[in-house]
Amino acid sequence: MKDHEEHVINLGPHNLVLIRAEKGYIMCGLLNIDAAEKLGHAACMVTGVKTAEDARKAEVKACTSKARELGVREGMTGEQALKMLNSKDFHRSRRMFCIHDGEVLVAPLHTLMSHKEWFTSMGLEGEKTIESDVRGFADDRGLFFYRGKKFNTTREDEETLIKHLQEIQLKLNLPDDTQVHAGVKPTGETRYPPKKKLGTIGKLKQLYS
Q1: Which of 26, 118, 124, 152 is most enclosed, with most CB atoms within 10 A?
Q2: What is the CATH number of the domain that holds 80?
Q3: Which H or E element spans position 158?
Q4: Exposed e or buried b per residue across 83-97, where buried means at least 16 C-beta atoms within 10 angstroms of its C-beta
Q5: pLDDT at residue 30 above 70?
Q6: For the sheet containing 25-27, what is the strand order?
């Protein structure tokens, strides 16, 4: 059973191709990526395609900021982008958090929202909060944190995380042997790999207590 819908419309010498996924869509060059951006859609564009199979194999030429939040990047294949746009299970399994104005906030359990969507739902400025606040999530691999659209961390960000580590551990119900990762590397996979491993929660608490 497919986790997406494929639409191909014959328009004479050209076909209009669109693949609709859980959280966005892949479109051919006949559609307007700028309009998708203005509408707040998670969309990416491939060109020179006649079929849905072509679109899955083609290189992503452009994508909206909403698609970028889900991990889509120019240069990946349509198939890789489709995984990002269908990352339903990953979003449901992770627990998001952020450190805002010195307070640890935790997103609702099993939410499908991105950090930006969650910030907006709380009345915060999504784009501004993405850049200003340390945020992250916990999944079966450990605790991840970062700041900004490039998912980087600074020494100051690490200090902020460590300062609030015990509160994060309590709110997310994490054991002491949970690995803490600083930053993630955007790749073609649904679950980004970490940039840097800091150690377990237990060891970090001992080091900085």
Answers
A1: 26
A2: 3.30.1980.10
A3: helix 155-163
A4: bbbbbeebbeebbbb
A5: yes
A6: 5-11, 14-20, 25-27, 43-45, 62-63
For CA atoms 125, 131, 132, 133, give the dihedral sign.
Answer: positive
DSSP state of 136: E
User: Is the pLDDT confidence value at 190 over 90?
Assistant: no
**CA dihedral over 167, 172, 178, 183, signed as positive or negative:** negative
pTM exceeding 0.70: no
Residue 101 reports pLDDT greater than 70: yes
Give Rg (Cα) of the chain: 19
Q: Residue 68 above 90 pLDDT?
A: no
Q: What is the CATH number of the domain that holds 179?
A: 3.40.20
Q: Could you tell me if 108 and 82 lie in one domain?
A: no
The H-or-E segment that residue 121 falls in is: helix 115-121
Q: Do the Cβ atoms of 38 and 56 come closer than 8 Å?
A: no
- 112 and 178: one domain? yes
Residues 115 and 12 in one domain: no
Are the C-beta atoms of residues 45 and 27 closer than 8 Å to each other? yes
